[in-house]
Design brief:
Length: 152
């Protein structure tokens, strides 16, 4: 993996609301973590069998207002292509009405030919899926609306 690609990934994480990106490609593992500390992010690359790479980036979040006080809107952490399933021949990761747990994978975004799993930050019930499968999405665009576990 070349330095320009690593710099693009660091910039992608810096501009998005994702907290961590972990990628292994061609025997090199890149791990980019976002921290609240000030300063420019630094990136290092090592072969995957020698340990992990860490590149801290400044904290930045986009929090669109939920539709109801108890609902949570899941925004797109970055620009890319939205996918509801892990592969074209697999079922969607979640459907409207599904109960989900915090940390559960709910969609995938393809950015710069890299597939990034997006996980729910809160438990609850999927009330709405606000993006179409295969659609180009913008950073901050609402993807899901999640209600408390008692909702439907």
């Amino acid at each position: 993996m070349d330095l320009a690609k690593i710099e693009q990934l660091v910039d992608l994480v810096t501009r998005s609301s994702i907290a961590e990106l972990d990628l292994t490609q061609d025997g090199t593992r890149i791990r980019i973590l976002k921290r609240a500390s000030a300063g420019a992010p630094a990136a290092m690359a090592q072969p995957a069998d020698r340990g992990e790479v860490e590149a801290p980036a400044p904290e930045h979040r986009q929090n669109p207002a939920p539709e109801a006080a108890t609902d949570t809107v899941v925004p797109a952490p970055m620009h890319g292509i939205f996918y509801r399933a892990a592969a074209p021949d697999e079922p969607p990761l979640v459907e409207v009405g599904a109960r989900i747990e915090a940390g559960q994978k709910i969609c995938i975004i393809e950015a710069m030919k890299t597939f990034i799993d997006i996980a729910a930050e809160v438990p609850g019930v999927v009330l709405a899926i606000l993006a179409e499968n295969g659609e180009e999405i913008a950073a901050g665009q609402a993807l899901f609306r999640i209600g408390p576990a008692g909702s439907s």
